[in-house]
Amino acid sequence: xxxxxxxxxxLVIGTGKKITLECSQTMGHDKMxxxxxxxxxxxxxxxxxxxxxxTEKGDLSSESTVSRIRTExxxxxxxSARPSHTxxxxxxxxxxxxxxxxxxxxxxxxxxT
Amino acid sequence: xQSVTQLDSHVSVSEGTPVLLRCNYSSSYSPSLFWYVQxxxxxxxxxxxxxxxxxxxxxxxxxxxxxxxxxxxFHLTKPSAHMxxxxxxxxxxxxxxxGYNKLIFxxxxxxxxxx
Lengths: 113, 115
Prior knowledge:
The complex is a heterodimer of chains A (113) and B (115).
Chain A: E1 4-7, E2 10-13, E3 19-25, E4 31-37, E5 44-49, E6 56-57, E7 65-66, E8 76-78, E9 87-94, E10 103-104, E11 108-112
Parallel strand pairs in A: 2-11
Antiparallel strand pairs in A: 1-3, 3-8, 4-5, 4-9, 5-6, 7-8, 9-10, 9-11
Chain B: E1 3-6, E2 10-14, E3 19-21, E4 23-26, E5 33-38, E6 44-50, E7 56-58, E8 64-68, E9 73-78, E10 87-97, E11 100-105, E12 109-114
Parallel strand pairs in B: 2-12
Antiparallel strand pairs in B: 1-4, 3-9, 5-6, 5-10, 7-8, 8-9, 10-11, 10-12
């Protein structure tokens, strides 16, 4: 069964704090993605990775950074959180090719106060 | 360039009546098309996908979609709505951009199901 995990599910944090959102998948997928989704809106790609040591910026500019040291792990970091970072962050993974669907984690709902 | 347009931001139906969620796409090549569903406070789940095989695609939970190239449409249907179908639905097209594969999401359609 396809499994992709995100922690924490909910996070409320003060301005200026450093945070890391975790994402792990057990499917052995090379490709992983981070999306940002504001309430009631579509998803916007902010980062993606083709594999270990590969990271790229997505369509929507983001102050966050990502790393890919292991195939199964794709964490997202905000060095200094701001209220404008309040959003839902969704992680996904897929096989290569546009005909392959992406498998999504449950998301992390981040609130910066 | 690839894009999708979901024609309705909100759809409301009664339980037991048919569901129709409309999606038009734009693609410069044979598209890969998907429908995803998102329940409140949950991640996205794939309902079905079209990848140039049969034009009528059957998905999970009784949903299906028909690819119509002449109309550039990929509408999602279900014969009889259930209360548990209430959710946000996204029509998605696969694309190649800047040398990488990506998904382009529509704005979403919120489906409400009333008793």
